[in-house]
Structures are given as structure tokens and as C-alpha cells.
Amino acid sequence: xxxxxxxxxxxxxxxxxxxxxxxxxxxxxxxxxxxxxxxxxxxxxxxxxxxxxxxxxxxxxxxxxxxxxxxxxxxxxxxxxxxxxxxxxxxxxxxxxxxxxxxxxxxxxxxxxxxxxxxxxxxxxxxxxxxxxxxxxxxxxxxxxxxxxxxxxxxxxxxxxxxxxxxxxxxxxxxxxxxxxxxxxxxxxxxxxxxxxxxxxxxxxxxxxxxxxxxxxxxxxxxxxxxxxxxxxxxxxxxxxxxxxxxxxxxxxxxxxxxxxxxxxxxxxxxxxxxxxxxxxxxxxxxxxxxxxxxxxxxxxxxxxxxxxxxxxxxxxxxxxxxxxxxxxxxxxxxxxxxxxxxxxxxxxxxxxxxxxxxxxxxxxxxxxxxxxxxxxxxxxxxxxxxxxxxxxxxxxxxxxxxxxxxxxxxxxxxxxxxxxxxxxxxxxxxxxxxxxxxxxxxxxxxxxxxxxxxxxxxxxxxxxxxxxxxxxxxxxxxxxxxxxxxxxxxxxxxxxxxxxxxxxxxxxxxxxxxxxxxxxxxxxxxxxxxxxxxxxxxxxx
Length: 542
Fold this sequence. Notes:
- The chain has helices at 9-14, 18-25, 27-36, 43-51, 56-61, 63-70, 75-84, 92-95, 105-115, 142-155, 172-186, 199-216, 246-255, 257-266, 281-292, 313-322, 338-344, 366-374, 380-387, 390-403, 417-429, 443-454, 490-498, 528-533, 536-540, and strands at residues 161-165, 191-196, 223-226, 240-245, 267-273, 298-303, 327-329, 350-357, 409-413, 433-438, 461-466, 480-483, 511-518.
- α2 packs across α4 (43-51) and α13 (246-255) packs across α14.
- The strands form two sheets. It has a seven-stranded parallel beta sheet with strand order 3-4-2-5-6-1-7, sandwiched between helices.
- The chain has 25 helices and 13 strands.
- 45% of the residues lie in helices and 14% in strands.
- The protein folds into three domains: 9-115, no CATH class; 142-329, Rossmann fold, CATH 3.40.50.300; 347-533, Rossmann fold, CATH 3.40.50.300.
């Protein structure tokens, strides 16, 4: 036994003298048994009584029991334990040392190990610390808390509306949910209406609210999903959280404008995700009705890019005017641009931006040229030309296959639906796990594909898509993106980049790689920092 490290509590008691065992069991127990069943006071029963007199953890953690137990150690084991605590003296020196006072975590762990005591999950600590941090289950970072406070102050003052401008990946939705929860906690008989355009954004909002409210809420509230095939009884939605698709709200407005007015009576707060949608003629009236029906109704816009375009100053000014030039921007002392702060602190991945020169040899018609000049987006006819260009596609496939050696999750933004399928099918035939998601993908298939993409499987996966996944798509381990869809919209470009730049503090990656396919005859972008500050001149012209 002397060569075996440590000594179990049961072994200590089994080797103890009878008198010491009786003392360990305690006079009260001995006296009761002497009176009732003296025949039970055998040595084996004394060992059993001693061992069961307290839980093993209690014997270690209660000072008086610990002292009695360690005093039963054979000399050789006492010296062995002394050496673990750095005590070289023999005999009584051990018991005068901090071994018997071992109530700090490190000393306790040493003693538990020596005695062979396994600490069960959630075991109570020996002694509660006088100060302990309690971590919130739905907390905010300091920069997010500042945004919540500033927004709350502004919404409390007429005209009760503001846009929150936070970079992609900075936690706009999480930050907004604190404002939503505060509103519902203070207005338990009212609605919060959350508006967005895509199904991904809407489901993200509904799911995120359920998660947030379980920590931040003070009462039970219903969540109404009102988009796509979801069709709850809106007339009965008088309190709670209503997540509504803009197109479905527009259809309701055309069918029953009074219903929108009634919702305005109930809506303490309306949130418009991707706030640049607010001034679209189709939706502007609906948002105004919800916000203006009652004097204190509040309107909150959320965006990473508080403008509708890259260069249309009039459209961007209209959005600024709609929100009364009120905007809360994520600001960090010592940084002119918060994107750099978020990268430095690990909230966003540190991106590298590369260009892939396609030289597709576009043949632009006069009509194409006019559309490029007049519209805010690339004409469909031009996108179709790019999608069918062999040289361009070979370059995209080649760079994607090289990138999978460095990344396990890559997303490709294709020029058209057919383009997404083309790229994916060729990659798959060449041995790459590749999937497609477009607006035509049915819900079941989409969910299955996205689940595979989000899985922890280390095998590289490439997800090709068109028209979806630019917003509301949360796959933090995505560390690379190939933007093969040209766009004049800095909003859209920023959203595509945002899918790959979650940082380690947000469950993502330290670095990200963004490859933008450049077609020399078309406009392009290359920096999320530039995207963040592009519209500042518009909003500052109050």
C-alpha cells in the first residue's frame, strides 16, 4: 500500500484503531446503539458508520471532519501528503500546517486527489467566494450596451424614431432584442412589430426573440409568424411579438388597410430590419401607419449600410429624412471606424480582400449601357452573359478548389440561379462537397443543405447560392466567400461579405478570405470599412 499514491477515505477508516473509529462516529451515535442494539457495534459496522457519517466531499470540506480524518493517516501517508503541500517535516508538523486549513480551490483539489474523491458535476463549493461574477445568458458587449442606451434615450423623445447603424457581424439583432424586450416589459398589453423582407431574416428574428425573451422577459407573450405560408389570426394579435414579412403586410394593406391601422393602435414599437427598405413605395405607407397611429409609437431601423445605393445621393437623403436624420452609430473611442475595432477585438474576422479578374469580354448592347446608367443594379441580361462565360466560370471553379485547402466552409454568390447550379455541379463532379440554395429551393431541401453546411464535419463544403443567404443566414464557421455576382449596391455587397466575417468572439474565425470576381466593364467594391462610412455625409446633413 505504501507504494500506491494517496489513500482512500475508506482505507483510512479501515486501518484506524477502534477508539479512533468510535470517536469519528461520535458519542451520540455510539450511545444510541449501545442502548438499542449493542450487538451491532462490531468493527465492520463502526467502519461503515464512520464512512457514512458524512459525504466524502463534506469530510474534506468541513474543517473539523477533515482534521479528524487526516489525524487517522498512517505516518508514511501523512508524510506523503505533506510533501504534496511542500512540508518536509515529519509527524506533528503536518497537522500544524495548512493541510488542515486547505479551503482554497488549489489545496482542496490536491487533497481530493490524494483521498481519491471524485467531485460530481455541480458539486457545491466548499465556501462561497465573497465576490462572484454572474454571466448573463443573453448579455451584451460594452459597445452594444452603449447603443441600447442611446437608442432608448432617442426613442423616448419625439418623433420617436431612429436608425441603428452597426457593421455586419457586430450584433445588430442581439442589440435590438434588448430594446424589444425592454419595450414589451414596459408595455405588456402592446405589440412589437418586426418587419423584414426575406424568410431567412424573419425566421432569424422570431427564433432570436424566443431565445432573448427566455432570459429578458417578465411575462409570457405570444410570437406571431406572419410571412410565407404562416397565416395567424392577425386580428387577435393585440400583445406580443409579431414578425411580419413586408410583402405579406403589403398584401394585407391592399386587402384591408384598416387592419394595418388597428395594428398601429397596438404597436408600441415597429422594427424595420434592413432599414433601407423603409422608403420603398410599396412599404413606406405601411411603416408610417404603424409608427404614426399613436403619438408615442416608436420606429427603429436596423442596418449595416444606412443607404439604398452607392451613388444615388437623392435616394440616400430620402432614407435619412424618413428617420428624421436620427442615427445611432457604433462608436468606439480611439477608432475612426468601428470596423477596425471589431476586427482588433475579435468580434469580426480579419479579412483579406482579393480580386479575380474575369475579363469575360462582355458584349454590352446600347440598352444594357442605358440600364447600367439608370438602374441601381446590374441588368439581368448582363448577369446571364456572365453566367455562361466559360473562361470566367473556369476561374471561379479553380479558385474555389484552391480555397478549400485553407477553408472548410466557403460560400459562393453566383450571378444567376443557373450559374449557381453550374458551379456546384462541376465542383461536385470534381470531388468537392458542394450544394445549391436559391429562391427556388424548397424549404425542406434548403434546411437540409444548410444543416450540412453548418455541421462540425471537417470535410470542406462549398455552398453556391443566388438571391438568398445574403441576410439572416447564420453560419459562423464560414471563413471564405467568392462574390461572383457583380452589383452596384454597396448594401448587397456588404451583406455578401458579412456572411464570412464572424470573428472568434462571435463563434467564428480569426481570419476570412473574400474573393471578388471583377469584370472590368462593371462597377465593384472591396472594403467593408468603406461600406460602413459611405453614407455618413448624407446623415450628417441634418
